[in-house]
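Margin note: ligand = iron/sulfur cluster.
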Amino acid sequence: MARINDYTVTLFEPPCLPGSPRWSSIVTIDADLSDLLPYLNGYLKKRFYDPNTHTIVFKMNGHGVAVRPREIRIGNLIDRNDGEKVAREVIDFINEIDQRRDEITPDDTRKEPPKAIEIFKLLPKTNCKKCGQLTCMAFASALAKGDADMDECPELFEEKYRENREKIEALFMG
Ligand code: SF4
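Resulting structure:
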């Protein structure tokens, strides 16, 4: 029997910019994943894990994913259909890890995310709000916590910020 059998996807646009192409979602699940998080931490190579807050953050097919015991946060979604599709993919991945627990060595040690201030230094600092956050510093904090995805800042994809974007990606690669 799968670990997650039922779930609800709540989709939302960035709060300060209705009509933005970048959506996010919160997937509420019918299971407690507390004991599975160390297995995800042991399996994934590029991730951040905090055993105190029971949160693991990683990228999956270009989407930032934050898994907590009772919910999953997914970023960089195109629309509602994409939100439903990606939620299904993430649920399938988590259920697969649950099925493969015997093959995985669990790891409950903390893996540090970059500091928000380190990310902020590399952002455009225009406070344009296109990411849905009121300031670049708020966006940097959301990124560090796994509550936002770098792709939600369209300014970073201008050519003049390419090097900064690569540096932010490197921060997240550890
Ligand atoms: S979209 Fe980028 S530049 Fe604009 S406020 Fe958000 S983080 Fe700052």
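Residues 123-124, 126-131, 133, 136, 139, 153, 155 surround iron/sulfur cluster (CB under 6 Å).
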